[in-house]
Amino acid sequence: MKTIDTIQVGDSASFTKTVTETDIILYAGISGDFNPAHIDAEHAKASMFGQRIAHGMLSAGFISNVLGTQLPGPGTIYMGQELRFVKPVFIGDTVTATCTVTERIVEKNRLKLETIVTNQKGDQVITGTATVMPPKA
Question: How do residues 77-102 score in pLDDT, each as one tens digit?
Fold first, then answer.
């Protein structure tokens, strides 16, 4: 188990996934976000992107995957997140969420992490910062 005592500034972990139409439809059903930009191909053709885009929070959820399963890992409490949606994610894009420890606040058992999601071209699609409480030993 990773704790504040075993995690250092610069530690990093990633998760990669190809976004499918099924992911978008399931996310719409779970979240209730049926914005036509995500689910209506005809509407999306006329948008600034020219095609359907994935929900921003779907891609942001991959950050949660990293924090809750790898760094710090199981038992982590996700306390806060700042996000900036830089570019769209399209059906078929392969995105990688990477979290890197930028600060240890040992006396409060907190970590701050840079959170970046990139696509298969290496373009940043989401940038941000997370605050988490890692599990105690």
Answer: 999 999 999 999 999 999 999 999 99
Residue 98's nearest CA partner among 74, 79, 78, 124 is 124
The answer to whether the CB of 93 falls within 8 A of the CB of 57 is: no
- The count of other CB atoms within 10 Å of the CB of residue 64 is 18
Asked whether residue 1 carries a pLDDT value surpassing 80, the answer given is: no
CA 8 – CA 119 distance, rounded (Å): 27
CA distance 136 to 113: 18
Residue 92 region by backbone torsions, left for phi larger than 0, else alpha for psi between -120 and 50, else beta:
left
* Global pTM value: 0.93
